[in-house]
Amino acid sequence: MSLILHGARIRPRRSDHADAVLVVHDRITAVGTTADVIAAAPAGARRLDLAGRVLTPGLQDAHAHFFQMGVISRRASLAECRSLEDFRDGVARALRERPGPEPLFLESWDETAWDRPLVPTRELMDGLSADRPILARRICGHLAVVNTPGLALIRDLWPGGGIDADTGHLIEEPCLHLDVLLLPTAEEAQRAFDEADRMALSLGVTTSCDFLRPSALRRWGERINAGAERVRVNAFLLGECFEEPELLEIGSERFVIRGLKIWSDGTIGGRTAAVREDWHDRPGERGGMLVDPAAMTAAVAKAHGEGWAVAIHAIGDRAIDHALDSFAALPRGESRSRGHRIEHAEMVGPDQWTRMRDLGVRPCVQPNFLQWANPGGLYEVALGRRRLEAMNPFRSLLAAGCQPFFGSDGMPPSPAFGLRHAVEHPVEAERLTGDEALRLYTEAAAAGVPGHPVTGRIAPGEIADLAVFEDEPHRLPYPGSALLTILDGVVVHQGEGLERSASSC
User: How far apart are CA 366 and CA 65, in angstroms?
Assistant: First the structure.
């Protein structure tokens, strides 16, 4: 197949006047003016006039929970709730619309968006159902609330701590394990994969990411055996996966295991991130580490010695300190080539920028988290104005040579949503241009995964993963859907607003 995409605004901007791309089979073979590309095209090449629309590399969501994204999409959502009353009504509605004795699992409530940010409790949940288990997980994934039957269910399944019986809250570990404790069936998993593929491709995402425990990795194995995988996925595995060596053999051209994932601390929303100073609204509390720092250093060394990359979730500044300490114990100069990284790094400060750069550890950051940086929002309430203004310093990380790159963490999974926040950062000095932000979702994201075959560039010889948008992604209304998505030179998504016909030359 040969396809000419012409009349395009190619982004990030090029230094030439190129407005056209030639795709032959799975590769970009020419980039230039429309006239030059048509002249270089083989006979019979199809032509598609983009009429001034924006052509970008396929977007690369470097921190996503791909399988979970599909699972969550099939559950009742509480994301639109704007009060505790909305929350209660949303759960009641889901009980009516999804009848049956099985546990009701709801997702994505965020009390910081409510008129009165009151965290729901077991008492409220018991008023909705006294016999059917209900579990409602917060948007961060690190906190959930259950009713009394739900509490009994989780206690039967989870032998560890993190359960507050009085409030019905599941905090950190039991909440992070919910998708294992309530494992989707094989059929449910395949429907979830299909939906995750559809969602990603509709947003122009051609490379995604996943963080997996053994049960979910086995579901990936089933999908690969069926030859059904579509979006490229780079996977990082939780430690228990490495205890089953046969699981490490799961993979394909489009699903590649890259290394180890470590959760070092919690979240700001749950006040469980490990911070250096007290929480602004909870004097005397500073969150905590989910893993002993010495044990983390040992795990990092073991994974590095076996040739794996390591991705450490570290949100609080104290957790970032410990993560950097773990990487500092490795042989000097090896971290960058291996692809070691810190996930989120929301509270990274100037003293840590230098260490990060010198160690060659790259931060995978989430611009969409700036949705909580509004006046009176989560960051200001939890951390105070001074620390709020130091959060997510994207331009500073670039200037310091830390080589950051972007992912969504699925909150929401829209790159365009995050790009808009990066360009409109509430701290003006930390704002990125549209092209700078886009590079962090394409070329920089690709470079953050050594060995990834797609470079995130539009240039001759590169794999033809491409996306077409009505305008520059950071200017699009939510969710910022793509008009056209091309993967390996094949059109895999076509939305509304783009002519389906193409002429030949």
Answer: 13
